[in-house]
Amino acid sequence: MIDVELRDWHPDDIGVVLDAFSSPDMAQQSAWPVETRRAALEWMGTWRFRDDARAFAVVAGGEVVGNVAVSNIDAHDTGWVSYWTSPHARGRGVAVAAVRRLADWAFAERGLFRLELGHRTDNTASCAVATRAGFQAEGVERAKLRYGDVRHDVERHARLATD
């Protein structure tokens, strides 16, 4: 397994964010287009000063190559996990290592009990990340996501602090 470090996002990371969101599969992974330096700074800033969320830059081999986050933390000690890696860092186990490290942090430092995530059923790579990071599949949410005129089923996974 590749070794990764999780750290806060820095203004110097703008280029990584812009490169990541320029990938076609990432274009709809933000609430707004992340196409300018200002938009990248705003994206990084959305994670600061929130009680219900925390995001980390993923560093592998001294290079920022992705993001992991837990958000929508609720009163039941449950949080929603999301992750992405830059296209050049995919397929090396970076996302799996980062999600595992995020889960360890969320359980130990944030005191969460349950972590959830979801992926389109046609996203086999994201499913593999979830499964290899210890998240068990719990079922399919039909037509949950809409991109343009197309609706997608989503498979939900979860990991408990006791797993």
Automatic annotation (TrEMBL):
Residues 4-163 form the N-acetyltransferase domain. Pfam families: Acetyltransf_3 (PF13302). The lineage of its organism: Bacteria, Bacillati, Actinomycetota, Actinomycetes, Streptosporangiales. It comes from the Bacteria. PROSITE patterns: GNAT. This is N-acetyltransferase domain-containing protein. Coiled coil: none annotated. InterPro entries: Acyl_CoA_acyltransferase, GNAT_dom, Ribosomal_N-acetyltransferase. Transmembrane segments: none annotated.
